[in-house]
Structure formats: structure tokens, C-alpha cells
Amino acid sequence: MNVFETFFKLGIHHILNMGAYDHILFLVVLCAIYQLVDFKKLLILITAFTIGHSLTLVLATYGWIKISSDFVEFLIPITILFTSIFNLFQKKRQISNTNHWIRYATALFFGLIHGLAFSNELKTLLFKSLNLAKPLLAFNLGVECGQLVFVIAFMLLTFVLVRIFTAKPRDLNLVLSGAGIGVSLLLIIERYPF
Questions:
Q1: Which of 40, 81, 91, 167 could form an S-S bond across to 161 if both were Cys, CB 3.0 to 4.6 Å?
Q2: Cα R_g (the chain), whole angstroms
């Protein structure tokens, strides 16, 4: 297996495993207010998140920024909490353009935080490598691919719940965002670094 393929698979695995439950929970609450017909908007939102975490992943892996991993792990549930609370104030199914641009900017910013968490794991794998560009690109593409697989599966599940089981989108948002608030508060208490 070549370097690109190895790190691509590592990126996918980083997302699609139970050890990444906090990242998966963030994706769930990020998607909670969307339905399958909103997939294009959601795809842009996920890509904004990926751009953010790719940027800090590169900066931290090269050693250009350094932030305590305990502090970063503490910030991740805060991103989940904030996104969940924002969802609860989403009154209508249709998201206004202003709210959508706010969500893009927020996803980009929160991606910066999540990228710092990814960098801690990736640095240990790359410490002997002289050329980091190819593994970093492969890892980022793997992370994006893993996120897209998860988001597509999640959106299909919500489609089935709404269309076949007649769940109300607003109720799904409340349940998912409420769960996001509960779990993120527990993680914040557990990871409090001070």
C-alpha cells in the first residue's frame, strides 16, 4: 500500500470509528436542521468545516501553531454545544440566507478547532516523514470522504424517518440537538482542563 492510500484510509477511519464519537456527534448536530432536499447547502457546510480543519491540521502538523491538546479536547464539546443551541433557535424549516452564511462561517471556525485535535494524532504518525504534503493531503481527503459517507447515510436515515415514519423535522431537530447539548455538557465537565 502506498503512502497516499495509507493516509487516505487513516482519514476515513478517523471519522468512521466509535473513537471519534465527539466528531460524529458534531456532524449529527450540524446536519440536524437539514433534510435531503437541502443536500447542496449541507455539502457546502461540510466543505467549509473541512477547509477549517484542513488549515489548522497543516499548521499544527508543521509546528507553526501549538495549542495544548487538553485545551483543544475541551473546546470540541463546546462546538457541539454551540451548534446544538443554535439549532434550537431555528424556528422555520427554511434557513434564511443570513443564517446560512452564519452557519458557514461557524462551521469554518469550528473546523479550525477540530483540525487541531486531528493534528495531535497525525503528528505521531508523521514524525519520521520528511515530506508531509502528500500524507496531509491524503488524510484530509480521507476525512472529507468519511464525513460525506456519514452525512449521506444520516440524511437518508432522516429521509426515511420523515417520509415513511412521518416524523416531524422540527421534532428530529429537537431530539438530536437536545442529545447534543446533554452529551456535550458531560464532555465539557469531563474534559475541563483548569
A1: 167
A2: 17
